[in-house]
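Why run this: before we spend reagent on co-expression, it is cheaper to look at a predicted model of the complex and decide which construct boundaries make sense. The entries below are exactly what would go into the expression plan.
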Amino acid sequence: MSLKEEMAEKAQFYPGETDIAENRRNYMNPNYELEKLREIADEDVVRLMGHREPGEEYPSVHPPLEEMEEPECPIRELVEPTDGAKQGDRIRYIQFTDSVYFAPIHPYIRARMYMWRYRGVDTGTLSGRQIIEVRERDLEKIAKELLETEIFDPARTGVRGATVHGHSLRLDENGLMFDALRRYRLNEEKGVVEYVKDQVGIELDEPIEVGAPADEEDLKERTTIYRIDGVPFREDEELLQVIQRIHELRTLAGYNPKEAEGK
Amino acid sequence: MSAEEKLFMKALKEKFEEDPEEKYTKFYVYGGWKQSERKKEFKKWADKIVEEKRGGLPHYNPDIGVPLGQRKLMPYQVSGTDVFVEGDDLHFVNNAAMQQMWDDIRRTVIVGMDTAHRVLERRLGKEVTPETINEYMETLNHALPGGAVVQEHMVEIHPGLTWDCYAKIVTGDLELADEIDDKFLIDIEKLFPEEQAEQLIKAIGNKTYQVLRMPTIVGHVCDGATMYRWAAMQIAMSFICAYKIAAGEAAVSDFAFASKHAEVINMAEMLPARRARGENEPGGVPFGILADCVQTMRKYPDDPAKVALEVIGAGAMLYDQIWLGSYMSGGVGFTQYATAVYTDNILDDYVYYGLDYVEDKYGLAEAEPDMDVVKDVATEVTLYGLEQYERYPAAMETHFGGSQRAAVCAAAAGCSVAFATGHAQAGVNGWYLSQILHKEAHGRLGFYGYDLQDQCGAANSLSVRSDEGLPLELRGPNYPNYAMNVGHLGEYAGIVQAAHAARGDAFCVHPVIKVAFADDMLVFDFTEPRKEFAKGALREFEPAGERDIIIPAE
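The model came back. Tokens follow.
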């Protein structure tokens, strides 16, 4: 083992002794392969986001980096640009709403997962929505993974650029999360959810199928939310202790750093 | 506690058709905005206005924008009352009681009388007696609402427009109080329970203050900083008149100096240039001062939860709806955040749970304000709050925004720590622990701007050093991290009040302000702000500052 490897910090990702904590660790850990559950065509990912037409050239905001005369800069030498950055792509986004009713992933876990797994991303976290902004061609790759794998559920996860409310509302009779713009619906014949509008609510020419909703037990196994009807937060004593410790150290260090010594 | 005993159960059953524990419902079937009587009324008015007053220029149209009412447009129970209202009725523009609460704070200025009396006696050789003070007060009650006292040819203000304007006296000098005409005195011994009256009289001592209430209508046209200037001008005129002083004499400037600087107590501090407002605007009202304006403690001294909850309701309305929601932002969004803490008895349930927990385990204000107590109480109350949202989907839907839930859980946790310790700093530290617990439990908290302060707040919660912190009582909306952040400020005021209510304190920061707002001539009843808001929502509240008498009758 090299000295560098020996000295490298071993990422723990997240504390906790429950399945919920384990799911959080897995989703954050870039060495954990997210399980692919559905296939969504590249073109459909593009249509769902609505930033450009499938097949259309990527609009750019600057010339390709290799055509630009960039100043000498050690940071530029150290950091390999992403494909989108190299090509001068626009920065665009995909935004998700995750239901409190056992959606597979939730906003702050998304944020941490994105920061662990993806390069060149800017992410923002709110209670009812979670956005990731990336150079456009990089975004399309990331979005595909976010839609096709176990962290997405057609009924409990929504792709929503605007009018996002729904994460905390009761579910409709089909078990779908509320969406005031009704971007998706359950195709009862096929048993799958299909989007009829893109993420900002513009109608699509053709519906986009995103697969069948998972059953409740499956969702409970995949989810990252602590709930009294799933894994109660109260039961994860290790996580509670870690949070309390963080709080105590922040408080003491802010008041007087000496107070936090040895704690 | 059984489900039926939950304080929020009545509201949840009224708001939704389904059982509050039911996880599934129907959407898109309620008729959109037409399910709301209030929105139908708005539409009718808008159509009329467009035709009659706007020459066809569009106005309100609920069919524009996001489709309103795809889900149940739920009513709200004003907490602590049996009144159900529509959400629209709790926007301050639609609620005269809310406006008046702020009017009554903004138009209040307190000026000490002792400097002026010393000038009168020592420099001008005048005698100051209870009789002369009564005469002065009579003069002031003529001048303050807009009566002339010195010049013989002077415009004056219609008394019907300024009926709410007056001046009274507060003193801890009981001998003087006995001799002041009752109508001019805010009588501490009559208005407060004996134990609280003793504290207030001791704190105020032998000093004498005049409490001045400028006309509401002046606040509507001018601003908060007008108030102490208006007061100072009329005080100086009244001294000149009542004590027969030469109007141009240099000594008169001492009255002005005392009234504008040396002896004036404004309800709010001036704000810095980037939030430029003068004195007596909401952004400058410290939490402890707001808590002192609210009078629940003297009416319900044995119910510290209610005392804190009324302050939270008042604070959410003033700081979130009026200050952040309008002065600093504009529009309609902030009401939705603010109402979460004073509707549907959800916060009430959590706060009473916390009160019971600490009473059983520690006793009121009997625990040391140490980290073990903060961790124990804040964790337990936060977990209880989160579990209610999880057990009752109707409660989760009622507080459909994460910021609402974060504010409610953290307020309950903070108040409970304050109940246990009698210490507001410990209370606010409990608030911050609650926030990060909540964030990790649900994997979400508020919006970007909401929870930024909660993720770093612990570090400054115990600091009182310049530029780093202050005792919570003296922090306010202009405190660095708190400056643009809905769903916190009223709750912080409630934590201050919770600590002092648990200790049995008659006031939090300022005894004279506490007494000034006990006066029953105020238009808004500060003993129960939430009840007043409900009256406003029902359109039963009669405000001041109306101008019907100078406009054509409709």
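The longest helix of chain A spans residues 237-255. Chain A has a mean pLDDT of 96. Bring this page to Monday's planning discussion.
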